[in-house]
Amino acid sequence: MLISGAEHFVHWLRLSRVGAQVVSDADVERFAQHDCQCFLCRKRGRLTASGVLRRRRSGAAFLQFLRDRGLAPARGVAEEDPRLCAFRTWLVHRCGVTKQTVVRYLAETARWLQSLGEDPSKYDAVTIRNIVLDQPVTRSRGSVQLTATVLRAYLRFLAANGACRPELVHAVPYASRRRDAVLPRFISPEAVERIVTSCHDATSTGIRNQAIILLLARLGLRAGDVCQLKLSDIDWANALLRVDGKSRRAAQLPLPQDAGDALLAYIEQARPIVPEDRVFLRSHAPFRPLASSAEIARIVAKARDRAGVKGGPSGAHVFRHSLATAMVRSGSSLESIGALLRHQSPATTAIYAKVDVVMLARVAQPWPGDA
In CATH, what is the architecture of 189-357? Predict the structure, then answer.
């Protein structure tokens, strides 16, 4: 597939009069979106979203191949604001946040960093408050909450280094957060089993996807936990799985029999033999690790479609909520649920107490007045 795409890319470069000495990532994007009139007639036809992705993937892979051999110019690296570099270092080494959190925080900080000014010692409460309050109406409540959270973290970083006054942290207004206003969103145990069963496929992709979904369903792992899982994290002798989780808090979880069998089947039968410690790899060459949680979410979405599960929440996190809900309704304590889900605060686990309708009915007071 990649060779065929690279051949198409070369024909497009020739028609576009773009030489290898000047080809860039912008050319790859133009190639992915172009209305094909190339010599390769088999490449013509209606351009779909998946076709754009295939073109972009193959063009980028061939361009990287040329760069590795010095046949194309190296990718230009934009100079990053030194304040963002220092903030990244503080987040990683002092706060221990995950890679995804660093990317999200830095992107949000870059959005309003220039509004704060160059000199942190001159920051004032009015400017800080306006960053949160003066936002486009198109931004959601969650985006406003993210702004307040990241701005508060950035001010703490500056205060820790003596660059601004510590009391400015309290100038950041709190965005409204409707905590525990709704029930946790979940799907029934029957729907979970239908999704698991839908992955019974003898292909390498099917074997991999079944192992992924069983880890999500049986252990309540986050999508990021599955992406970052390494071969060295599996303790086969004691049936344990090491999961790093958030903030570099490693935990040992028991590996259930069916999830362990599916994981072993993938490693022995379907996993490509490559020098890579990450467990789950892409099914097509080049056999790189799954890039992000979005790929896990796509695997879950396709499994839901095959199983015919309609409605309810989507994404990989639904298995985590569904597992906790099923444990509460089967009589498990909130402490055991919090230990399995690796919650740092009991208040996080307490949200699942609302789904035990039978227990709540026993303590509910009668409605005053007539029925």
Answer: Orthogonal Bundle (1.10)
